[in-house]
Predict the 3D structure of the following.
Amino acid sequence: MSEEPLISVERLGKKFGKSLKHNMLYGVADLTRDFLGQSRRGATLREGEFWSLEDINFQVGRGECLGIIGPNGAGKSTLLKLLNGIIAPDQGRVEIAHRVGALIEVGAGFHPMLTGRENIFVNGAILGMSKEEIGKKFDAIVDFADIGAFIDSPVKHYSSGMYVRLGFAIAAQVEPDVLLIDEVLAVGDAGFRSKCYNCIGHLASRCAIVFVSHAMAAISRLSTRVLVLDHGRAVFHGQPPEAISCYHRLFDARVQPSRQGLGTARIHSVEFIDASGRKVRSIRQGQPLGVRLAVYSQVAITNVCLDLVFVSLADEVVAECNSQLSGMSIDLMANREIQVLALIDSFSLNAGDYRLSALVLSADMVTHYDWQKDVASLEVCADRVGVAGQQYRAQWTIEERASMDSKEAR
Amino acid sequence: MTLRKVIYTPDGALVTGEGGRLDRLRSVSERFARTSELVWCLFIRDFSGRYRQSILGIAWALILPLATVGVFLLMNRSGLVTLGEVGVPYPVYAMTGLTYWTLFATGVSACASCLINASSMLAKINFTRSALVFSAAAQGGVEFLIRGLLTGAVFVSFGSTPHSLALALLCTLPLFLFTLAVGFILAIVGSLLRDIINALGTLLAGLLILTPILYPVAAGSPLATLNTYNPINYLIGFPRELILYGTASMLAAFLASATFSVLLLLVGWRLFCVAQTRVVERI
C-alpha cells in the first residue's frame, strides 16, 4: 500500500470506574490535574477501576474494512468511541484521518418536535456539514430516506424505521475518509438494508471502514480483516473465517450443561464424529456428521424417542434430529447401556457455533426421561458465513445463455 | 495535498497535516464559521422546538414576563413595595434590573444543563461541543430582548424616557461574557456533580435577593459591603444607571468587573476544552 494508513492505533488503552461514585470523584481529580496542565497518570489502575480496552494495535488503510467482533462487554463500542474522538485514551495513541463519519445509532441529536426537513439541516450541521453542502445534498438525503410526505412532519411521529432511515441518509452524505459503523445494519427492513450495503460498498473503495457487528454474515461479507476482542484485549487479528471461529470458541467456555427429566433412562455420553469415524468438535459445512450416544436405562422402555436439538449462539433452535421422525424404533432394556449412532449425510447449518441438547423421550414424546441442555458444542466451518440458518449446497448448472437480442425479441 | 489527521493521546488531541501558517489560519477560520453555523442551528432547534405543540406557541415567550410586570404593578398600586427612593417610578427601576438579571439567570441555567440534555448526542457524535454552551447562553440573550421590549412598554406607561440606550446596550456585553464564563464552568461542573443543577434555582433566587436588582441597598449596610465584591452588582447596575439617569457612578468598578469577566471567560473556556472528553465519558 503506497498511501499511509488512515487509521493507526498503538498500544491503545482505556479504563473505566465500576461505581458512579468513584467515577465522579476520579472525574473531578482528573479534571483538576488536566486543568493545571499536569500529565495524566493513565497507566495505573485506581481502586474500583478496570481496563475496558488494553494494548490494542492495528492499522487500516484506504479501501480496507476492519471488522470488530467479540462478546458483549468486550470493548467494541469503547474502541469506536476512541476512534471517533468522543472519549480520550488513557494509554497509547490513535492517529486518524480528520474527516470521520460515524454510523453509530444514527438519529442522535434529532429534535422530536421539529420536522424531518428541519432536522436534516440541524443534524447535518452537527455532523460538520455547511448549510450549502446540506442544501446541495438535500434531495439525495430525502431520496435515500424514502419517507415521502413525512418529510414535513415532526420526527416524533416517525416509525422507528423511518427515524433510522433519515439518520442514516444524513450520515451517509458526509463523504468521510474514515467510516465507523456500529450495528446500524441490524435495523430497518430488507429494502433499507440492501440500500445500506450498496451505500457502504460505494464508500468502501475510497475510505477506511471500521465495522462492529454481531452479525457474522455481515462481518464475513464486508471485512477484509477482523479483530476479535474479549475482555478488552485483542485475542485475534486476521482473516475473517479464522477470526469468526476464534469468536465462536470464546463461547465454548461459557456453556453450562444442565440436566432435567425423570432420570430412569440417561444419556451417558455424547460425541460428534466425522466421516472417517474420528471424534471431532468442528466440521466443514456440507460434510457428513455423526452423533454417537450412549444411553443407559434402569427399566425397560419400548419404542423410546431420542431427540437431538441444535441451538445457535443466539439461542435459536435451528435444527433437530429425531429418531421417531426418522422412523426408527429403539427399545431400551433394564440396566443395560446401548450405543446409538445418528448419521447426517450433509450437515448444512450456516457457519457458526452450535450447542447440542439431547433428550430421551417416551414414544408419545410427552414423558421426559432425560433432557440434557448444552451437552456438547459443535463448530461448523466455511469460508463465508451466509445469512440464513440452513445453507444448501445445490448443484448449480447454467441451462441456457440467451443473447441480448433473443431476450429482447421475446 | 497532505491528509489532515488527528492524533488522540492521553494528553489531548492534536491536529496534524496543516501545511503552513496560512493553511492553519484558513482551517481555524473555517472551523469558526462552521461552529457559528452550528450554534445558530442548535439555537433555532431549541427555540422553535420549545414552543411547538403548545396552543399559545411563541406567545409564551411574552406571557411570562408580562405576568411579572403585572404582579409588580399590582404590588406597587397596593403600596406593598415602597422600597427606598430610586428617582424613577419603581416598576421602571425593577423591570430594568430584572431584564438584565434575566440575561444572566436564563443563560446560566440553560448552560448548566445543556451537556446533560444533549448526552445521547454527545456520546455518539464528535462535534464542537462548545456550540451547545454558546447556544444555551444565547437563550439568555433572547429572553433579554423580549423582556427589553416589555420594559420599553413599562417606560412608556409611566411616562419615563430611557437615557443613553445605545451605550447601555453596549455595556451589556460584559454581563453576557460573564454569563458565558459561568455557563462554561457550570456546564462542566454541573454534569460531573449533578447536585449543582438541583441547587441552581435556589442559588439564583438567593443571589437575586442579595444583589441590588429589585431594590436599592442602603449605603454602609452589611449587604452593601457584601455587594462591593459582587461583579453582577456592577455589571447590571452600571448599564441600568445609564438608562435610568443617563450617568453612572461606578465606572471603575464596572471596568474592573468587565476585566474580571473576560479573565473568567478565559478560565472557563480552558476548563471546558480540557475537561470535555472527561465529562462526555461520565455523562
Remarks:
- Chain B has one domain: 56-280.
- The two ends of chain B are 38 Å apart (CA to CA).
- Residues 56-280 of chain B form one domain.
